[in-house]
Each structure stands twice: as structure tokens, then as C-alpha cells.
Design a protein that fits this description.
This protein is α+β, with helices and mostly antiparallel strands. It has three domains: about 40-175, Glutaredoxin (3-Layer(aba) Sandwich); about 210-315, no CATH class; about 325-430, no CATH class. The protein has eleven helices and 23 strands. The radius of gyration is 27 Å and the shape is globular.
Amino acid sequence: MIKYCIIFCLAIMAIITQSLNAQEKKTEFKKVNVGEALPDYTLTNLIHYPNKSISFKDFKGKILILDFWSFGCAACIESWPKLMKLQQEYKDKIQIITVNIYNKEREVIPFIKRFEKIGQYTMTLPVACGDKNLKTLFPFESVPHVVIIDKEGKLKYVTEGYNLNSETINGMLKEKDFKIEKKTDEFINNDEPLFVNGNTGSAGKKDNLLSSFMIAPYASEVFSIAFMSRKVRTKGFIGNYSIKDIFAILYGKGRDLRLGVRNSRIGFRDVDTTKIVMKVNGIIKNENRYTIQYIVPKPIPISTMKRQMIDQFETVIGYKARWEKQKKQCLVISRSDNPIPEYTGGIVSDTVYQTAIRTNGITMEQFITKINYFIPSFAKMTYPIVDESGFIGKLGRISINLTDDKLNYINMGKLLLEYGLKFNIEERETDILVISKNDIEPAEFPYP
């Protein structure tokens, strides 16, 4: 009897061991390189799709496009209507699947619904939620990250979102061998001088910190970000921005580079704007993008660093920007018949986002800055905001839910009437940052 029990236990252990080995083999994933066939892998947790899961092999015969995104990627979310149009145009010849590896279905669904309401469209593209194995198969450090698989199930391209268009798809459908710019996730170290001591997209040496000012044309290895800091040393970095946006950042207030000069306060004089903006007719122009890096081995005021960066940039790039007084139609904020609430205590809050305002204990200037920068309709508004409320001190509690699908300055003005404020469009003389040609001849890129 004991003998049979031992045999039975050994058999059970063998089955368990085989099962564990099978599970381990099942979860062994590795990077798929361009030209390689995709593994037999199943996408799971799909929404906006007939099935909750589907295998890569089921897409053979059509082009499969995986568009990786995250909640914090505005460019990803803005691309959804374009992607839906492409899917509709090519129907069953392609399949676009958007992929969010960071969030689960219960988080993704309400997030998408919020942007459907704001953009007034219905999201129809399938979304694969919360599958981190996909990052092992198709490694990336930033989004948008686009993976294109050909009709044979082989990885064809890994590229940026703006390269996903009709030209790319038509070329693949015709099986043409054409080049698409490869996306790189091997970024330069923004804390060290660029292109010095091996800091050119691979691991840079940190033995020699140089004081430096650098301007370079667009490079895919440079991460698109802007920041300034002053601790042991002063650092300024603006990566892959247009001339207009660089001036807007450098002329903005303080070190928070999100608070650059709004488009409503930027003007042009005798310049071809197609050469100094990021997008022309909706297409990103990399030839219009530049990177600036400034490092000083000691702390200096941010305002001084900005001024020096402006002087160098103007000298090299051939454009200048100056504040001027101009008469324009402005959004004038004045007092309504109700009293403006004054701060009497409580938790200080400066929360302003696209669905709510929760402020308390902030100045009128801070309040205007918040709505101007963090409510989408105001960020795109063509009217500069002029404060004629005359309110000095700190505002008391303002709490507003922004649920209107067509929220604009008119509707916002109605909501603020009870808080003692009103909006009107009137002509005023106000400060405008005018970009024009510089008298100094610009340097040529690339340098000889």
C-alpha cells in the first residue's frame, strides 16, 4: 500500500513539474526584430472589438498596426480621429489596434469616454489594455510608438506616429521596398553636454562637465522635452521645438516651461511662418525644429539664463522676438454685479483641468494663468486675456464643474458671473510678442 502511495505521489509531482515547465515556456518572451516573424501570441483585454482576445496569426493577410499610447500622451490621443479615418479608408486591408500597456480596461474605458465627449466623436478603434508583455516584444521608452507588421506576419517598421499615413499603407499594400524613419528610444542624456564625451545617443561619459551653449537642428535621438533648473549648476534644455515655440518658452514666465507665451499673444512681421512653426497643414516639419542646451557650472538666475539663450538663439537662427504694444480684440475680465470671493482660510488649491475648477487662496494672475493654459478651449483661443477686475489679494473658494461639451470663453464667463467676474470681447492695447527677421545673417545647418 505504501509502495502505491509513493508511486502516486511521484506521478502527481511529475505532472505538476511538467505543468510549471509548460507555464514557464509559455511566458518566455523576447524582442521581435525588424524582419522577424511575430510569435504565436494572443492579444487580450480588447475593447471596441468583437472578441476579447485574438492571436497575431489571425491577422495574416492584412497589415497589422499597433499604436502604443498612454494617458499622458496628448499627441497619441489627438491622433485617434486620423487613425479611425485610415481604418475606415482601408477597411479589411489593415487593422489598427491602439495599445495601452499601463492601464486596465476599467481605467481606459472612462478615459476614452471623456475624450469622446470633448472631441465629439466615437472611438471605434480596438484597444488592448494592460498587457505589459507587449513592451517586451516591442520595446520602447516613449510614446507614440508605432509598430507595423506586414501581411506575412513579419515586423516591417518601428516608427513615429506621424509616419503612419496613407502613403505608408499604400506602399506596403503594393509591397514596395521604401524607407520610413526609424524610431529610436536611445536618447541623449539631457543632463550632460550633447555630442560631447560620447553623449550621442549611447551611454555618455560623465568625467568632464563643460559649460556649453549648443544649438542643433532636429535629431530623432533627442527627446522632445523642455526644462530649466538651477541648483549646483544651471541647466536649460529645449529639445526638438520649432522657432516659434522656442521663443514662446524663453519669453514665458518663470521656470515652468508649460507657461510659455500663448499663441494669442504671438504675432509675426514679414516672415514666412511655414518655416518657423511645428506643423504646416497638419504635417510636422522636422526641418523647422531645433534643440538648445545651455549649461553653466554655477547657479545663475533663470531670467539671466533665458536672456542669454535668447541672444544666442537669435544670433544663430536669423529671427528675433520683441514685445510690442498692439491693439487687438481681447478677452477682458471685469467685475460682475456679484462680489468676488476673498480668501479667508482653508486649504490652498490651484486645481484647474478640463472638467473642473477647484481654486482657493490664489491670486487673480494665478487663476487666469491656470484657465488660460490648462483648459483646452482657452489654450487654443485667439484672444489675449486682459485683467481689468482690479482685484488685489487672494481669491476665495471657486468650485465649478465643467461638463459642457462646447465649453468656451462665453460659457465660462456665464459660470463665473456668480463669483463676481465676467468676460467680454473688446479692443485693447496689449503686449504682443512679435517674431521678425533678425538683421544678423543666420548660420547654415549642418555646420561645415
